[in-house]
Amino acid sequence: MDAHAWFETTATGFEFAGVATMAVGFVVSIGLALVAWRRQRSGQAAFRTLRESFGGVILLGLEILVAADLVRTVTSAPSLTDAFVLGIIVLIRTILSFSLQTEIDGVAPWRRALLTGPQAVTRAARSATRGGGTTSGGTASGGDTPDGTAQPTGL
Q1: How many angstroms from the chain centroid is the CA of residue 32?
Q2: CA-to-CA distance for 71 and 3, rounded, in angstroms?
Q3: Of 1, 27, 37, 114, which one has the greatest count of Cβ atoms within 10 A?
Q4: Which residues, other chains included, contact 15 with Cβ-Cβ below 8 Å and sequence gap of 6+?
Q5: Calpha distance 145→155 (Å, rounded)
Q6: What are the tens digits of pLDDT across the range 113-138?
Q7: Crossing angle, helix 43-75 and helix 80-105, to 10 degrees?
Q8: Which of helix, strand or coil describes residue 28?
Q9: Is the four-CA dihedral 126, 128, 134, 136 of positive or negative sign?
Q10: What is the reported pTM?
Q11: β-pair partners for 150
Q12: From CA 149, how far away is CA 115, in angstroms rounded?
């Protein structure tokens, strides 16, 4: 097997792994949501669990698919068209990853840096004692921030 065929097989393997990750992750996410619903008897908690776990699975799958595109582009005959197509694909997947991560965390990445470990634990504890009153653990509707201060909407 020559090097080009090996790299094509590797890229195809990455693509298969990315799609398989998302498919298997969807089933696991549904299982986690059912466990959350059974334990807490809350549809909201089950939905939040499904959304957060499947969002993470999609992010992982997208990262694996980007790796497949990188392997395929780097190992092909170099051309400006291939580089441009790769750039567009990576840009689209990066925007998807960014928006998914913001949905999962409930906060933009530049605001996430303001959240320390103890604050994250406090937020999770508050959410658990309140019965998970916020969606995606965030404050999108202008709730309290992890340090307990009010946060206006739209930030």
Answers
A1: 16
A2: 12
A3: 37
A4: 65, 68
A5: 12
A6: 665 556 666 666 666 566 554 444 44
A7: 160
A8: helix
A9: positive
A10: 0.62
A11: 144
A12: 13
